[in-house]
């Protein structure tokens, strides 16, 4: 069985705040847990810091919506102009890539958010981009609004954080990973924690199928395929 087939059997778990490895970002995660109607949170950081994971997490419940730079501007305008709001939380990703029309729609949405913040119509706004608010390539009045409430810079996970997360994921499945297995994974595999977690799950199943202990040779056997999964081996 190839690596891709095995990983397809155990796709990454849906993003949630519980399966997000916070590292130095505990304060940001707590702010998202506490983010109720009338509050706004803006997250920024480099690719791989977990922005999309966090936004999809908070927008996975009922009465929430997840939007990004490919979502229609009209959908945001409809929310801003609705007589009765259908959302208690709206998450908007990749703010730095919004075109002029979508920026205008987000500007209107921010104004509606502020207007109804202290009313039963209040809703939460959670946004994310790749840089701090005042350096965003957006219209000036929108840059200002990004900083109206809470702003957090997301730090990248350290290798120690990832190693601890892999060990914890394995322990949850009754496994114990040798340090050489963890070190090899962190050096040769993707650094995305959702896929790293899926790899541990696949490795567990593969070891059961082969009736073999989890070792570095078994891991390499699992990952053997015609095409490398990691673009940066």
UniProtKB/TrEMBL annotation:
It comes from the Bacteria. Residues 159-223 form the Hda lid domain. GO terms for molecular function: DNA replication origin binding. SUPFAM superfamilies: P-loop containing nucleoside triphosphate hydrolases (SSF52540). One of its GO terms (cellular component) is plasma membrane. One of its GO terms (biological process) is DNA replication initiation. This is DnaA regulatory inactivator Hda.
């Amino acid at each position: 069985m190839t690596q891709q087939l095995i990983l397809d059997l155990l796709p990454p778990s849906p993003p949630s705040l519980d399966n997000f490895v916070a590292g130095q970002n505990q304060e940001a995660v707590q702010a998202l847990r506490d983010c109720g109607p009338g509050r706004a949170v803006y997250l920024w950081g480099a690719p791989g810091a977990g922005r999309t994971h966090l936004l999809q997490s908070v927008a996975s419940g009922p009465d929430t919506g997840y939007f990004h730079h490919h979502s229609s501007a009209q959908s945001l305008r409809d929310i801003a102009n609705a007589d009765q709001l259908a959302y208690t939380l709206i998450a908007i990703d990749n703010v730095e890539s919004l075109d002029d029309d979508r920026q205008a729609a987000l500007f209107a949405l921010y104004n509606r958010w502020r207007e109804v913040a202290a009313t039963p119509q209040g809703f939460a706004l959670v946004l994310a981009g790749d840089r701090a608010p005042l350096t965003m390539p957006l219209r000036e009045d929108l840059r200002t609004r990004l900083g109206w409430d809470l702003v957090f810079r997301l730090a990248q996970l350290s290798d120690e954080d990832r190693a601890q997360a892999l060990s914890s994921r394995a322990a949850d499945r009754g496994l114990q990973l040798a340090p050489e297995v963890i070190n090899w994974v962190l050096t040769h595999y993707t650094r995305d924690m959702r896929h790293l977690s899926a790899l541990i799950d696949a490795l567990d199943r593969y070891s059961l199928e082969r009736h073999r202990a989890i070792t570095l040779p078994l891991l390499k056997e699992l990952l053997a395929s015609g095409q490398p999964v990691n673009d940066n081996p």
